[in-house]
Each structure stands twice: as structure tokens, then as C-alpha cells.
């Protein structure tokens, strides 16, 4: 007997999601270039081709590792050209083969394929039993599968041996191609029959479950239809016998409730008409259910229900001060509104909008206001709302219709004069469903909201007694018509001192209770709190600070229980033992007087920060390079600063041709952080001047201000936050625009005590303050001329 395996070299045709078996006839379309090349190569090689299956259907250019090693050597019996470069191929499987190695991979795959001889059954009795069992299971599979006919059983009877029977059944099962490949991989016929029986039984189980689900669904639908017809017939019979539930009594009950509300005549008539409709309908009528829900919703509203406000200004202010540290602007505004309300009960106060960065207490102060003045309150989260119907509601004719959020808030507030908080009003969106911002125009207009109409109610509802407080993070995102209806109160970011006081008076007490500790078990020094503020949190509000305090308390609780200590004390010395290395470090600032390095100031959403500007001067051709993720406005400021210094070159010891013979590189450190805005103009001009004159800049001076081509210094925003950043970084002097003197009222007293503010009108004043030895640096130019030039420039 010859045991040498039969190996042939054939083109390989990978198929997606199809598995071919011996003696199987299959036709399919071929569109891939490599696959068509494999078919053409087979036609030149006795029409034989090795067909195997791809492991993943997403691969378009399969390699050796992308296909199963076991496939079938087939004969191509027919090729038909289709449209769009697609050919239809018909093949007939001959025998199993094992892909040994790829011999060619150019236009198509060629591989050596080893023939797998057909397996014979050694134990005839076991083989007969397996064949009979697989036929019976396949017959059962056909009987419960709708897409199969009895023709399959006839074709099965024509199979000659067990191997042909197994391959025929496996090729016709409706299952995943990976299951079929598993059958193809089994060479031993007895093992193949056993695996096939197991696969058939699994498929039968799945099909029976699917059939049960479909049958139950069909029965439920039939039952619902049957119950509906029976209920309708029962209603007719009861009506004929006079035994029906008396709809008149139901409608009369609604009528009585409506009349007891003493509503306006138009509103009352509208609701009574709905009662009359209900009276004429059967109890199980679908439209009656809609009317019943509508009346229940209307009656659930707080018509003519008012709460008594606690209009005692001193007690309200005391209550607000107790629950919130700082926020004096908000508190003063609320006190003003209450004072006007006391003097004029009919006054329709303006809508208050609290604008500020996240975590500064906008929502919590609004809730505290409601509590302090004794109003019921409700909160509406507006973030992400795109549908106008969320505000105005849906027409009650639609399935699943409901009132809008304003009416739902009034239902939950249970009074006509509550405080409603409209949270995140700047996060409203708009799309094809409508503009919810426009829907709020009527709600927030004190001249119109007395007759607000919700689409679901379709009757006017009085919102004029509601006190609305809105919150927003970015004022610029609120449309102008809506912003015009609100009184804007800006809440700035908290300073270090404010955060310290908030932590001591509120956050620590709150977290002690939440974490099961008391004052004797957990202590933290003021310097420890400062460490949390400076090195572990960098935010405008106090949310991260509260989370960090909570983390400290959790770690302290573990230490108390595991190490059996009585208390834990946190200081600035041991805070890293609990929280790890510092997350933030002090703003980078120059430690000594340097040439071309100036400390600027910037405003961010989490407070002020130091913004050093560096300028380097190199021999070149006048190229200007700006780095540090500078925005368009800041890049323009840099160009303005260079031009401004050029115009001043005649007054100072600066070469008039510096912009031709030198390259200027201006950089703002922390290049990964985007920066923009005009307020770094004076900083850039000073740094350029220092680099050109080779004179150092004072390291204890910080500055901010926009600059013009003629050297004028224009006002900026965010002075309070910027000054706090300068104070935090040890600055002794802050140069500010002259027009920002009025903003010094907002600056913290501790900053005013420690830092000297220098208002300036022109860049020459900035240079005189910031440049070291300014008066001694112009030996070749008379000081009087410089000063006269300064004075003349300012006067101009």
C-alpha cells in the first residue's frame, strides 16, 4: 500500500461566509480581482481549484493566516459573465484537502494541497447506528424548519456511504459558517457523525424556542383583539340593560372639581366642554381615556394656590450668609428684589441669571434662596434639550403626549408663586424639531408670561407670580433676545481665601457627616487646606476641593480602623502621604531679572494664571516666529507689539534695521495649552523691547493690557482673577491699564494690601516700571527728551 500523500499545486479561492463540502454543487458570484484570477488560472489547470473559507469576512486580501487550512478541491463546471466585472462560478466538490503552504502570491494565491482520503467506518454496527441516528435527527430538523421540503430526504436517500451522508447534511443545515467549518475539519467519519448529531440537536433546540416565542406572541395578539371586541360588546349589552358604569357620575365629579377651582370663565368653559365630551363616550372608549388624562393633568395644577413668602430681609440675609460664603452680589440682588416686593406687591420682578464657571454655587444659592424666603421650588435641567415640545409640551391628540417641563415644574412645586430654577440655560440646542430657546422667550418675559399657553393644556396659565432664576456658564452662548429678558449677575471664580473659608465653614462639616467622622477624629490645618487648593485642585469652584477633602477623610477612616489611632491630623507637611505627589505646581515665573522674559497675566475658566512671555533675538532676515499654541488674536497682538516697538526705535538705543537683520522668536510656555486674547499685548511689547536693548525685566512685576500700534494701553477683563494669580506667585507690582482703575473695587483686600497696582496709559510708562535701571539705560539720549516724548505721546 502506498502511504505517500497525494499533493497537488492549485490556485486558491477564498470564500466569505461559505463552506464547500465534497460532492456539493455550489454557484456564487466572484468580484475580487485575485479571486477572478484564481478562477482563470484553474480553467488553465484541468479546471481544478482549492476552495477554502476566510476566517474573517472583513479581510479583502487574505493571506495564509486569514483562511482555514482545511478546504475542498473542486472542479469548475460553469462560468457565466455578469454585469460590472462579476462572474458567476459553479463548482462541484471532489475531496477534502489540507493547505500546506503558499507557493505563489502575485495575481492570486497558489498553494500545495494535500488530499485527505475518505474515512471508512471500522465498526459496522456503530456506523449503522450513527447513520440511522443522524438521518432521524435531520428528518426532525426538516420537520420544524419552514424553509425545508421533503425533497431533501429523497436526495439524502441517494447518498452512497456515511461520509457522503454526513457531508450532504452538513452542507444543507442553516447555521453559522464556523459551525460548518468545524464539521469539515473532522476527518474521522464516526467523529464527524457524532459532531453532526450534536449540532443538529442544538439547532433543533434553538428553532423550537424561536417557534415558541412566535406562537406566544401570536396568541397574545389574538387575545388582545378578542378582549377588545368582548369589552365593546359588553359595553353595548350593559348600556341596553342599564347596568353600565355611569359615565355621567364621572363627568359630574370632574365638573364639580372644576367649578370648585373658581377659574377664569374662558378656562372654565374649555374644561367643562371636555367634561361634556366625556359624558357622551363609553368608559372603555380610547378617546375617553385621553380626555380623562387631560382633565386629571389640568386639575393637578396648583390653580389659585399660593404660599406665604417670608419677606423679612434681615432673616433672609442671615440665612443666606449662613449657608453660603461670599456671593455678595447675588445676595444683595435678592435682598433688593425682596425690598421692592414688600413695597409693591404687584411688581413683576425681572428674571435673574447667574453666570459663572462650574462649581461656584449657582444652583445651590438659588435653592437656598427658595428656602430662605419660604417658597416652594422646582429645578429644570435645560442642558441638551433640542425639542421645543420639551418646553411647550405636545398636542394632546398625539399618542403619549404630555405637558412641557414648565407645567410639570408647576405641578411638582404645588403653588402659583414658586421659585423655578432653569439650570444651564446656555446649553440649549436647536434642530429640525424647533428652537427651545425661542419657546423660553414667553416664559421669561414678565410682560407676557401671565398667559403662557402649553400645547398640551391649550389654555393660558399664569406664570407672572413665579420667581425664575436661570444659571449659565457662558453668557455668550445665550441668544440676545433671551439674554435681554434677564438681569445678569456674574459669579467670579473663588479666590484662595474664599475657598479656605468655604472649606472650613461648609465642606469639612458636610464630609465629616457623610464619612462617619467627628471633629476630634479628623483635623486639617489652614495650611493643609491651602495645599489642597494650590497643589491638588485647580478650578473656579470648589467641587474638586470637596472631592479631595472626602478622599482625605476616607483614607483617615481606614487609618483610624486599621492602625487603631484616635485621630488623624492633616497639615501641609504630611498631605502628600495621603494624596500622593502634587498634581499641580506653582505657575512658572522668572526667579530673577532676565532679558526678554516678562511675567504676563491671563484669565482662564478656573481662575487667573501667570503667563510668562519669552522673546529671543537672533541674527537673521527679519523672520517672526510665534509658538506656544497662540490663537489668532494673540498672534495679531504679537505683530502689533513688534510694530509698536519699531515706531519707538528712534527714541531709544534700538537699531532701526533690527526687523531686517534679526529673527524674533516669541514663545508662551506650556505649548500644549491653547492661549488667545489681546491682553498680553503690553507683555509682548516689553519682552521685545528688553530683548532688543539687552536690558533685564524685573521678575517681581506682572502686567496685563492690550496695546495699540501707537503704544496706547487699552483695558482688559478678569482683573480680579489675574491679580489673585499675581499675588499667589509673589508679585510685588501689577501693571494694569488706566481704564481698569474702576475694577480695583472687585479685587480682594488681601491682594490690595500685598501688591502695588500701577495704572498706565502708554507703553513707555510700562517700560519705565518694568525695565531694570530704566533711567540709567539711555546714556546716549537725554532723559528729558525721553520724558518729553513720553508726555507728548500720552497727550496725543
From TrEMBL:
Reactions performed catalytically: Hydrolysis of proteins in presence of ATP
Annotated coiled-coil segments of the chain: 190-227
Sorted UniProt keywords: ATP-binding, Coiled coil, Cytoplasm, Hydrolase, Nucleotide-binding, Protease, Serine protease, Stress response
Positions annotated as active site in the UniProt record: 679, 722
Family statement drawn from the similarity comment of this UniProt entry: Belongs to the peptidase S16 family.
Record's function text: ATP-dependent serine protease that mediates the selective degradation of mutant and abnormal proteins as well as certain short-lived regulatory proteins. Required for cellular homeostasis and for survival from DNA damage and developmental changes induced by stress. Degrades polypeptides processively to yield small peptide fragments that are 5 to 10 amino acids long. Binds to DNA in a double-stranded, site-specific manner.
Protein name stated in the entry: Lon protease
The encoding gene: lon
